[in-house]
Design brief:
Number of strands of chain A: 8
Radius of gyration of chain A: 24 Å
Distance between the termini of chain A: 37 Å
Structural class of chain A: alpha/beta
Number of helices of chain A: 10
Family (chains A, B): Belongs to the pyruvate, phosphate/water dikinase regulatory protein family. PSRP subfamily.
Oligomer: homodimer
Strand content of chain A: 5-15%
Order of helices and strands of chain A: EHEHEHEHHEHEHEHHEH
GO molecular function (chains A, B): transferase activity
Catalytic activity (chains A, B): [pyruvate, water dikinase]-phosphate + phosphate + H(+) = [pyruvate, water dikinase] + diphosphate; [pyruvate, water dikinase] + ADP = [pyruvate, water dikinase]-phosphate + AMP + H(+)
CATH architecture of the largest domain in chain A: 3-Layer(aba) Sandwich
Shape of chain A: elongated
Helix content of chain A: 40-55%
Number of domains of chain A: 2
Protein name (chains A, B): Putative phosphoenolpyruvate synthase regulatory protein
InterPro entries (chains A, B): Kinase-pyrophosphorylase (IPR005177), PSRP (IPR026530)
Largest interface: A-B, 82 and 82 residues
Chain lengths: 271, 271
């Protein structure tokens, strides 16, 4: 079974898509063909979106599903005329919140991904620059790091650092364990002062070998033997040094970041 | 007025937080003190969360608000016993979808940020590596780029490229206009074959000067005069070359990315 879904928003569409994906993931037997229609903020754009949905409906014979975060009721009505199943993301929550807070919702709606707070923006950008300049041991000053990811090459440190910086403004540095560290089974001296900020990333050897093979085909670096050795030594080193760690093989970047924050008791909310 | 909000999830909490922030942003007069409680997936953790919420309630005298994406009804009931206002993110949508699709939702719930699809993961990682190695004109092969951001130094190109890569698997390169380009008012030769993939970022001169001043205090690079000149020339160059552009001063990274995708007709959905 396949059904078409439109995420419609008067802004970026990120909220519609995030909640829509979460809801749809609960129907595992159905394949969803997903489309994002952002910035639908006037009648002409709503009419164009409606036409597209209607055309799809007529062609496929299946009723499309619309996940909607548009605020303007008039625009919602235009899209509803397409005959699609309308799921309005905000409607169920506004009433209870208005009652609880004793106030009506204000005009500025659905701008959560549009508004810019310069301080927060700066925190994100500064953290991103920090992650870029403290990636793979290029820069050695870890004093400013909120946390430092440790692991063998290609265990997922860089994307995790960038994600934490871009979304949470967390300054995460990144130290790739060298063959020397792994042979000695010793933390390098410059990491030792920051032991309570270290977190290890591990990965299954077969998966690591695949990733490295893509990167440097046929190299010793990509052999399963080398990967296995590095990972075993890294594991030993982390246990000896008391560094908490996470196997990233089956875990998304979002979940890795959440688990690291949970481990450090960081409750920072997203920007 | 200030109210405390808990985002509770049996997984990362990203969905709860995303929709929660969108809903709360509609109540502009209220300050919300936000806490994320992820990975609440057994009774003991739910009890601990409940205790925390109750303690908060007793201390502040104000009823806390819970934005909940836990799937297990038993866990929801434990948290509801705290007396908080429970906003269940999925409940309102499951009924209508079950009716529409003629199928019950499956057991695997709320894993949208936890599941890993290796192909998609690889696309994200490869795009991130692409963005890192094609940042600020370091690497010159633009043939593989989905799109190329053009702008003066510190106009927001790098974080935007990284965001598009991490979230959408879009391979975005990044070309900083040099003084030479700006004097000649000419696109560099190596960008010309890819004119239809170029997108310009601009920014207000005062804001650019602030950002640059943070970076290199007291430099000529950070003077308002230099910023103004570069931005005027960049604007001219983009208009002459027919490159679409966006002023990023008041726009979040999420919105910049969405607008660029809309401009190119890219409807790629998030990972």
């Amino acid at each position: 079974m396949q059904r078409t879904v439109f995420f419609i928003s008067d802004s970026t569409g990120i909220t519609a898509e995030t909640i829509g994906n979460s809801i749809l993931a609960q129907f595992e037997g159905v394949r969803f063909d997903k489309h994002r229609l952002p910035f639908i903020d006037d009648a002409a754009k709503a009419e164009a979106a409606t036409l597209r949905i209607k055309t799809h409906y007529a062609k496929s014979g299946e009723r499309p599903i619309v996940v909607n975060t548009m605020a303007d009721r008039a625009l919602c009505d235009i899209v509803a005329a397409s005959g699609a199943l309308m799921l309005d993301v905000f409607a169920p929550f506004i009433g209870p919140l208005e009652a609880e807070l004793g106030t009506k919702r204000s005009g500025a709606v659905n701008r959560s991904h549009g508004l810019v707070d310069f301080d927060k923006y700066e925190a994100r950008i500064n953290a991103t620059n920090y992650a870029l300049s403290h990636d793979d041991g290029i820069d050695v000053d870890y004093a400013q790091a909120d946390l430092i990811l440790v692991g063998v090459s290609r265990s997922g440190k860089t994307p995790t650092c960038l994600y934490m910086a871009l979304h949470y403004g967390v300054s995460a540095a990144n130290y790739p364990l060298t063959d020397e560290d792994l042979e000695k089974l010793e933390l390098p001296a410059r990491l030792r002062p920051y032991r309570d900020r270290l977190f290890g990333l591990t990965i299954e050897p077969v998966r690591l070998a695949q990733i490295r093979e893509q990167r440097r085909a046929g190299s010793r670096y990509a052999t399963i033997k080398q990967c296995r050795w590095e990972l075993e030594q890294a594991d030993r080193l982390m246990r000896q040094a008391g560094i908490p760690s996470l196997n990233t093989t089956h875990v998304s970047i979002e979940e890795i970041a959440s688990k690291i924050f949970a481990s450090f008791g960081i409750e920072r909310t997203m920007y």
